[in-house]
Amino acid sequence: MPVQKMDVFDVIVSGAGPAGATTALFLARAGKKVLLLDKEKFPRDKICADNKTWKCLDIVKELGLWKQFQKLPKAEIYGVLVASPNGSEMYTPLHEKDIAERGHWYNVKRIHFDNLLAQAAKKEKNITFKEKCAVVKPIYAVHSKTHISGVTYHDAKGKTHDAWARVVVGADGSQSPIAKAVGHSPVVKGRYATNTRAYFENVKGPMDRCELYYLKGICPGYFWIFPVDKKTCNVGIGMRPEDFERQKKSLEQILRETIALPQFKGRFKKAKQVTAFKEWGLSVLGKRRPCAGNGWVLVGDAGTFAMTFSGEGVGPSMRTGKIAAQGIVRALNENDVSARNLKKHYEDALWKILNPEVKGFRWLEFLLLNERLFDFVIAKSAKNKELIEISSRMQHDYTLSKKLVHPKTALKMLLS
Ligand SMILES: Cc1cc2nc3c(=O)[nH]c(=O)nc-3n(C[C@H](O)[C@H](O)[C@H](O)COP(=O)(O)OP(=O)(O)OC[C@H]3O[C@@H](n4cnc5c(N)ncnc54)[C@H](O)[C@@H]3O)c2cc1C
């Protein structure tokens, strides 16, 4: 009887964005045989605001890609401007101690950044990287309805293939077919925002900061202007669908109206829109949800790990990729890829880090949902050196956000 040739790997990673490429690179360097599949061909665009904080940059360095990263077109970022619904503004510079230790932030277009990771994955001898291959569904182990042992995917010619592995990683973003198949859709009601963005040249204003405007009618979503190189800005808006549907307007319409507001009109007078508006949805991190099961794990947006308040997801995704890879290596070495063991080595290890951050973020969410308090905190903090210092350190350690809404701090604000 002819024997069918089988594609068998230690790990299959579905999706080669920041989460998937990072997972694959760490696994490969630990000696594991990886099949990395992506439905697109790199370089490919991804709708994003393009900011890269230390969470991301530290891992780029750890992966030995810093030299290549330095060659990418980018903007150097030294601080963040946040405006509350009544127009109060607070500029928070990155803290000088953090800059001395870790450098500043950068904004880099995703088409360049993701390609850097993808090309690094292509060079890795333990990674078989197949582009234009879309994962359709997981394959379950014989006699099991829950243990995943492979995936079915379509190649560029529409041909269907099966591949097998001890562990399958869902790194396929905010519409992840793997996450949906295991019953944990990344589209989470109440935590989901639709976003649209375009690139503009010659927007007047500072090119060394990220600007986030939590405007009335848009908050808890925000309008952003993020420079990405010397003359280009990434301009966009993200809102909960129920908020813009209530206004009976499309998101693009709201973005155009925002740009035309008196406070921004002058800045866009000579600006030229150089790409079309493109939309993308994203759910942000909330309560703990399962991200490991029998033979599978979820990383990045597939596991809903983007931060609330800012929507930062590149660094958090890469971090989940790194911790998942470490957990999978341990589980494989112990020859036990059961839900219990993957949960222990990945999900529990990850949530040890996430728990204090999520608690910190809850305070920020509380502010976003209480506009008057948000206005008050921003107006008062903007003039208070101690609060700017806390806010500055918060860019490095989000657990400090609870200090901003602590009764002691509130009292100080009232008295200041
Ligand atoms: C408008 C917007 C602005 C944002 N701004 C920022 C920001 O400034 N900074 C920041 O840090 N984060 C930002 N984020 C969040 C960030 O973009 C995401 O958190 C990040 O891209 C998550 O990385 P990922 O690898 O999990 O997913 P993705 O980047 O979405 O990568 C998933 C990959 O999987 C592939 N894929 C999808 N389906 C399949 C399939 N069936 N088979 C095979 N491959 C598949 C895709 O082609 C893609 O390459 C923003 C998000 C949005 C929507």
TrEMBL record:
A Pfam match: FAD_binding_3
Listed GO MF terms: FAD binding; oxidoreductase activity, acting on the CH-CH group of donors, NAD or NADP as acceptor
Signal sequence annotation: none
Gene3D superfamilies membership: FAD/NAD(P)-binding domain
Domain FAD-binding: 10-274
Annotated PANTHER family: CONDITIONED MEDIUM FACTOR RECEPTOR 1, GERANYLGERANYL DIPHOSPHATE REDUCTASE
Protein name as it appears in the record: Geranylgeranyl reductase family protein
